[in-house]
Amino acid sequence: MTKHISIHLAFGLIIGITFSHYFTLTVAVSWLLLTLAFSVLLVTYFISKHLFNPRYYFAVATFLMFLAIGASRFTFAQEPPLKNHYTHFIKQENALVLSINQVLKPSKNYLKYEAEVQQVNQQATRGKLLLNIKKDSLETPLKVGDFVFTNALISEVEGAKNPFQFDYKSYLAQNQIYNQIFASPVEVRLLNLKSHSVKVIASNIRDKIIYEFEKKGLKGNELAVVKALLLGERNELDADLRQSYAAAGAIHILAISGLHIGIIMLLISFVLKPLESLKNGKTIKLILLVLILWCYAIIAGLSSSVVRATSMFTAIGFGLFINRKTAILNTLALSALILLLLNPLYLFDVGFKMSYLAVLAIVLIQPKIVNIWHPKFKVVHYFWQLLTVSTAAQLGVLPLSLYYFHQFPGLFFLTNMVILPFLGTILGLGLLFMLLAYIGFLPAIFIAIYQFIILVLNQFIVFIAHQEAFLLKNISFSLLLMLTCYLVIISAFYWMSQKTFYRTILVCLSVLSLQSVLIYQKYQSAKTNEFIVFNNYKTPLIALKNGVDLKILRTSDRLDNAVLTNFKIGSQITNFEVLKTNQNLFLINDKKVLVVDKSAVFEPIKQIDIVVLTESPKLNLERLILQQKPKLIIADGSNYKSLITLWQRTCSQLKISFYNTSQKGAFIYYF
Prior knowledge:
Elements: H1 5-22, H2 27-47, H3 54-78, E1 96-103, E2 110-120, E3 123-124, E4 128-134, E5 146-150, E6 154-156, H4 168-173, E7 177-183, E8 188-194, H5 198-215, H6 220-231, H7 239-247, H8 258-271, H9 281-299, H10 304-322, H11 325-342, H12 350-364, H13 366-370, H14 378-405, E9 408-409, H15 412-438, H16 444-465, E10 471-472, H17 479-497, H18 501-527, E11 529-533, E12 541-546, E13 549-555, H19 562-570, E14 575-578, E15 585-588, E16 591-596, E17 610-613, H20 621-628, E18 632-635, H21 641-654, E19 657-660, H22 661-664, E20 667-670
Parallel strand pairs: 4-7, 13-14, 16-17, 17-18, 18-19
Antiparallel strand pairs: 1-2, 1-5, 2-3, 2-4, 5-8, 6-7, 9-10, 11-12, 11-20, 12-13, 15-16
């Protein structure tokens, strides 16, 4: 336990957080768990002298203690916020003073900002929200540190309204954002106040660097990539170029992550290497290395991903200083432990998991892969090292990547073999040019060369992305399948380290479990039948699922829209069909379903079970209910809100069940 204490404690914390996530605990139960765990730890400590193997019992007690800490910490993070949180002071009409924390990627119609609520009705408050301001070509976008006044309404962030859809509400909740404001430019007034926080100073530094880059001729997609690569600003990235990076398996270089911080750490370590010859030189080098890494993190905006990556490589730096693999693993586990104690919701952030899994795979798996072959020539050996690092990292994140993104870039080996050798140069030059830009001494020729390098990088990425035959899309991958894949990978490399009979059996069992999961999921998909009215904006989307077959009963939308694609992937659909007729009466199992669209034309049939209203039909709903006698009325997302409100009132008066997909999400009838 002493040798791997950080790993031991981090593992307990992770299990506790996961348990609390899937089995909701009350605050009272959480306190009870903490009390019991602490009591066990205390008793174990006092009686350890009389136990046969005290270390074992103390290890179990500390594990249980951190499991209880993880479970309770997650529960407390879900509880109502502090007393001075703005939600405790909200009324029907409010006067709000907000400060801008971060400029987010704008949507089609709105500029988006993360804002801190400084005042509500002249009451000092805390807490963050999402500020959405309607786009206006005459308005100047807000900056980090700006203060604004608004009396616009605060509303709760909406969750996913369709099966297998990305849950933006949960994503924002990881950053303690639960509410949002939609406002027009006239509802938001810029105040003559300015923050002088570290984030504002960092934002001003970034603005000056970007201004100098633009002044010297850096523009277009090249400027957007440089801003993403060096400063963590991805708001101006072209959507097609972003998709090309994703298809080529290189999307990770457009976000400051563990890869960037790791390369920067190596570059700084190389520059500071002469210090090692001094007395206490290694210690001085480590201190300077950590300081420079965190200065860069501050300039890059201190986003969650940047803080996590910098914390992780700070830990790795200490591990390398001690110069033992166990020290690297322990310090890596310690950084995860600290981050999860500060914010247990990080555990459900895909970036957090991918960063740690990639580094763990490089530390544990890469040495085993690299020993398979020992090239004699240095150049071949160098590229073999790169290939094994890339392979190990990819193995570490592959199941997780398939679970979240459902695609696999087949040419990722080629992409990384070409990019990784030059990424250090690109980042190194970028850091140098950032420094020169800030001090105002950046020759235009330097930027011309840098723009050409980024242009070549973009063209190579676009070329790889166009090789669509190598891009595997829409891969259905469940949580259970992801876990069993990791079980196979871990057991396989455990067997490679020592080929014993016991480990061979372990590998066989893990492969058997993977096959069992695949068979079980196929069986489950085949026996599930559903009638679905999706919450699709502007156009209807109604479907019937029979096992792995999907029939679209009504739609006027594109068949590659995100709602339908997500459902096909999540439900493991293999056969897909679109009903070409304008049929509006369907028999679903033993239920009669009538679809009434904008034409409002349908044959009167008695004893209808379900009526689906779509595309805002002009009809007398009261008469329809009296004639058809339905048991349920469904209004989908293609209807006008005013009509939905009117229909809901009518159904309430006639005591008929009403289902609004805009409020409750997609309607699903299982049979």
